[in-house]
């Protein structure tokens, strides 16, 4: 119990002295994660759509060649950025490009580099999610849209993509939560996020574990809040769970289907004039 009390005392001491720095780091982390996830989704949608454009042997050679080239580039991009750690991607882009270009290409803005690295990494994962979401939409809906004269672009924008977006919404949320945590690797190029604040505070005070406890609680709070908000967004996209069904068609009564002889009906006079046997035969 004494160790726990000492831990809480250290946490209170660190928060009282560096609380504003921790909060600034939280703000930088969330802002980077939001921007990079949005840009990554745009990249992923573009790559996913290009991978699902229909192409057959009857299409012009130029179209087939161009699509083949674009799909090859997209495939290489996806495999490279999914198959390498983000921290090495940041090192390669920030330090490698100036090295290979003899300092002709240099990045002065750490924010721009961080957004670029996290965005293209997110886009590589989102490209496959979007492709799967597009393919999950029933083919009959695409054929129905074409049957009423819609072009491929109209079909994608009005029929396929809205449904694909709903299907991949959990994956978008998952990527956002991953980005909240993975932005911590940007400290390697000097980005001052939540994790960078922890390293600075721990180095200045030599209280590594209490600072790490603050970091753990902060990241857990951010991810839990993001999960809650994303689930609310999914329910919003689903719409209402119950609908009021139409139990009576007003056109049916007009057609006379429900006009049976009964009390007060104009058919009563006719039935009274007929013999009893005739009404029985009619009923049969």
Strand content: under 5%
Subunit organisation of the chains: single chain
| Average pLDDT | 83
Give the helix level as a range of percent. Answer: over 70%
Low-confidence stretches: none
Compute the number of helices: 11
- What can be said about the biggest beta sheet? none
Specify the overall morphology.
Answer: flat
Number of strands: 0
Radius of gyration: 32 Å
Give helix and strand order, one letter per element, not per position. Answer: HHHHHHHHHHH
What's the end-to-end separation, in Å? 91 Å
The helix/strand class is mainly alpha
Care to give the gist of this entry?
The protein is mainly α. The protein has helices at 2-51, 61-82, 86-100, 110-136, 139-147, 152-182, 194-205, 208-238, 250-255, 267-273, 276-283.
């Amino acid at each position: 119990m004494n160790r726990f009390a000492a831990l809480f005392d250290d946490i209170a001491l660190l928060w009282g002295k560096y609380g504003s720095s921790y909060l600034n780091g939280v703000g930088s982390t969330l802002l980077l994660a939001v921007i990079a996830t949005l840009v990554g989704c745009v990249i992923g949608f573009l790559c996913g759509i290009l991978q699902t454009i229909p192409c057959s042997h009857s299409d012009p050679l130029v179209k087939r060649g161009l699509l083949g080239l674009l799909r090859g580039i997209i495939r290489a991009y996806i495999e490279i950025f999914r198959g390498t750690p983000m921290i090495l991607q940041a090192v390669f882009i920030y330090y490698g490009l100036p090295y290979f270009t003899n300092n002709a290409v240099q990045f002065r803005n750490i924010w721009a580099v961080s957004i670029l690295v996290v965005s293209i990494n997110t886009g590589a994962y989102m490209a496959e999610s979007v492709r799967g979401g597009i393919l999950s939409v029933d083919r009959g809906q695409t054929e129905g849209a074409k049957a009423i004269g819609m072009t491929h672009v109209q079909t994608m924008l009005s029929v396929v993509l809205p449904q694909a977006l709903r299907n991949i919404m959990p994956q978008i949320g998952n990527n956002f939560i991953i980005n909240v945590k993975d932005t911590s690797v940007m400290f390697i190029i000097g980005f001052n996020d939540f994790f960078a604040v922890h390293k600075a505070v721990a180095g200045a005070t030599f209280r590594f574990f209490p600072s790490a406890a603050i970091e753990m609680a902060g990241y857990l709070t951010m991810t839990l809040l993001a999960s809650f908000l994303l689930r609310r967004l999914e329910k919003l996209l689903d719409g209402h769970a119950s609908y009021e069904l139409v139990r009576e068609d007003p056109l049916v009564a007009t057609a006379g289907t429900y006009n049976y002889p009964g009390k007060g009906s104009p058919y009563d006079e006719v039935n009274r004039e007929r013999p009893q046997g005739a009404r029985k035969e009619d009923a049969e």
